[in-house]
Structure formats: structure tokens, C-alpha cells
Write a structure and sequence with these properties.
Chain A: This is Phosphoribosylformylglycinamidine synthase subunit PurS. Chain A: It is an enzyme of class 6 (ligase). Chain A: It is found in: Cytoplasm. Chain A: It catalyses: N(2)-formyl-N(1)-(5-phospho-beta-D-ribosyl)glycinamide + L-glutamine + ATP + H2O = 2-formamido-N(1)-(5-O-phospho-beta-D-ribosyl)acetamidine + L-glutamate + ADP + phosphate + H(+). Chain A: Pathway: Purine metabolism; IMP biosynthesis via de novo pathway; 5-amino-1-(5-phospho-D-ribosyl)imidazole from N(2)-formyl-N(1)-(5-phospho-D-ribosyl)glycinamide: step 1/2. The complex is a heterodimer of chains A (about 80) and B (about 220). In chain A, strands 2-1-3 form a three-stranded antiparallel β-sheet, covered by helices on one side. Chain A has helices at about 15-25, 50-65, and strands at about 1-10, 40-45, 70-80. Chain A has one domain (about 1-80): Mth169, Chain: A (2-Layer Sandwich). Chain A is α+β, with helices and mostly antiparallel strands and about 80 residues long. Chain A is elongated and about 45 Å long. Chain B has a single domain (about 5-215), classed as Rossmann fold, CATH 3.40.50. Chain B has a nine-stranded mixed β-sheet with strand order 2-1-3-4-11-10-9-6-7, with helices on both faces. A two-stranded antiparallel sheet of chain B has the order 5-8. In chain B, β10 and β11 (about 190) form a beta hairpin. The model of chain B has no long low-confidence stretch (mean pLDDT about 95). The chains are: A alpha+beta (about 80), B alpha/beta (about 220). At the A-B interface, α1 and α2 of A face loops of B.
């Protein structure tokens, strides 16, 4: 079963990398970029075939390692 | 003082730490490889600087979840002193032995230079030999030293006198100029600067020495 875990910074957490990308987009001539927040995407394949169980397992992976929940949120999607 | 320095793949400051502990403490510390599950019985456990696991995922994230960290957590709960410097601080935060997190430097650049620190508390086994409010020199070398904590955590750190060092001239954007913090029981210290690199005249200064002398006297 394939899944995608998306990790994003929580609102209010300063994102220096996002700010630098925002500045670079502006200097490339892309006007009107209001803000950029950088995150991470993990494409994970698991042996589990039950979507509910797989999702629970991936949620645990995200909470335990993939995201630092002090500063990051995560979202798990089963993609097939 | 018996001590142990814990080494992960990618640690690179263990040599300097071992030298500082041996020169000041008089005993050669045990160097413990991360794959070992048991720690020798010691008075001080040090997690040195470096780039454990290449800083993959987040600095310190992978090392923080290794079995050896459970052993360190148990020792910390027993009251054994635990010092994390630079990547060691990042690992202690990721492992939950210290609150908060170290993010990318606000200016995005890796900073390798000497900074000034103010000693904010002398109420710990690490800082007793400093004068409160003293401004000391210390080298820093990091890309992810920008300390962040939520408002509640920050208020607790301040209220409980757990901020050990603040930058005088913040190099990395750390909230409230924080350079080092103590655990609730005050026996775990995490700091980004490298006190082990300023311990003898050949280093160009002695300002890191009192930290080790404090531990020796504790």
C-alpha cells in the first residue's frame, strides 16, 4: 500500500528557508507571492493491505519520527 | 569524575570533548559507540557536536531515537549529569530530554566564529564556577542553532531559572537570545556553543574551563 505523509510547519513558526525562497521568487520576477512555507513530503510503501491499519501505522511513524510536533504538523494520505 | 562521551555516526567533536574532559578532569572518558545499549556507570554523559546521520530529516532527529538514548534518559532520571553540545543539544531536544527545538539559523548561513555569552544562572552543576552575569567567550559552529519554544515553555524556562547562557549579540535568531538551557531537574544542559574548545592558552582562552571545573566540583 502506498501512502504520502506531508509535514508542514505550524502557523506562527518562523521559516527562514521559506522566506529566502519567497525573496528569490520575487527577484525572478514572480510578482504577488504573498508567502512561501517550506515543508517535506514522504512517499512510503507499506506491506499492510488494510487501509485503516496502514493509516494508523503511518500516523504513528509521523508522530514518532517524521515530524517534530513541537513545530510541525503532519497529514497522512493513502494513495493506493 | 568518571565520564562517557557518546558517539553517533557523523559525530565529529568527540575528540575535543575527550581532550577537555581528560585535561581538566584527570580521567580519560569512556567513548561509547551509539550501537551499545549499556552505558558505563559514570557521573557525566556527554553528547558531542557534529552532524549525526548527516543531519538527515532534522538535525539530531535520527540519533535521538536510538536505543542508547533510552539508557541516557534513564541515567538522567537518576540524576546523572548530561551535557549536550551543539549537535548534542539538538539530539537532547529531539529526544525530549530538553524542551523546544533548534531550527535553521535565521540568516540561513552556517556560522563558525567566536561569540559572547552571558552566564544567566550559576544554580547548576555545569555553571556553579562561573559568576552570575559574567560575559564569556565561546566558539560556535552550527547551521541549526535557532532555538524555538512556545510561549508557555519559554515562560517556564525563565520562571524556573533554566536559561543557562544567553548570546550577547544573537548570531542565529534564537528566541530570547537563548544559547543553552537546563532540564527541570537541572542535571541536563544543552548548549550550542563549544566550551570544550576554549580550555587552555593554546586555544586562545580559558572561558570554557569553569564549566568542566564546575562538574568536577559537583
Amino acid at each position: 500500500m502506498k501512502a504520502r505523509v506531508t509535514v508542514t510547519l505550524k502557523n506562527g513558526v518562523l521559516d527562514p528557508q521559506g522566506k529566502a525562497i519567497e525573496g528569490a521568487l520575487g527577484s525572478l520576477g514572480f510578482a504577488g507571492v504573498a508567502s512561501v512555507r517550506q515543508g517535506k513530503v514522504f512517499d512510503i510503501e507499506v506491506a499492510e493491505t488494510d487501509a485503516g491499519k496502514a493509516k494508523a501505522e503511518l500516523e504513528a511513524m509521523a508522530a514518532k519520527l517524521l515530524a517534530n510536533t513541537v513545530i510541525e504538523n503532519y497529514r497522512v494520505e493513502i494513495v493506493g | 569524575m568518571k565520564s562517557a562521551v557518546v558517539v553517533f555516526p557523523g559525530s565529529n567533536r568527540e575528540r575535543d570533548m575527550v581532550a577537555a574532559l581528560e585535561k581538566i578532569g584527570g580521567h580519560r572518558p569512556a567513548v561509547v559507540w551509539h550501537g551499545d545499549h549499556d552505558l558505563p556507570k559514570v557521573d557525566l554523559i556527554v553528547i558531542p557536536g557534529g552532524f549525526s546521520y548527516g543531519d538527515y530529516l532534522r538535525s539530531g532527529a535520527i540519533a535521538a531515537r536510538e536505543p542508547i538514548m533510552d539508557a541516557i534518559r534513564r541515567e538522567a532520571e537518576r540524576g546523572v549529569a548530561v551535557l549536550g553540545v551543539c549537535n548534542g543539544f539538538q539530539i537532547l531536544c529531539e529526544a525530549g530530554l530538553l524542551p523546544g527545538v533548534l531550527m535553521r539559523n535565521a540568516g540561513l548561513k552556517f556560522i563558525c566564529k567566536e561569540v559572547k555569552l552571558r552566564v544567566e544562572t550559576t544554580d547548576s552543576a555545569f555553571t556553579a564556577r562561573y559568576d552570575k552575569g559574567a560575559v564569556i567567550r565561546s566558539p560556535v559552529a552550527h547551521g541549526d542553532g535557532n532555538y524555538r519554544a512556545d510561549d508557555e515553555t519559554l515562560a517556564r524556562l525563565k520562571g524556573e531559572d533554566r536559561i543557562a547562557f544567553r548570546y550577547v549579540g544573537n548570531p542565529n535568531g534564537s528566541i530570547d537570545d537563548i544559547a543553552g538551557i537546563l532540564s527541570e531537574k537541572r542535571n541536563v544542559l544543552g548548549m550550542m556553543p563549544h566550551p570544550e574548545n576554549l580550555i587552555e592558552p593554546l586555544n586562545g582562552g580559558l572561558d570554557g574551563r569553569p564549566l568542566f571545573e564546575s562538574l568536577l566540583a559537583a
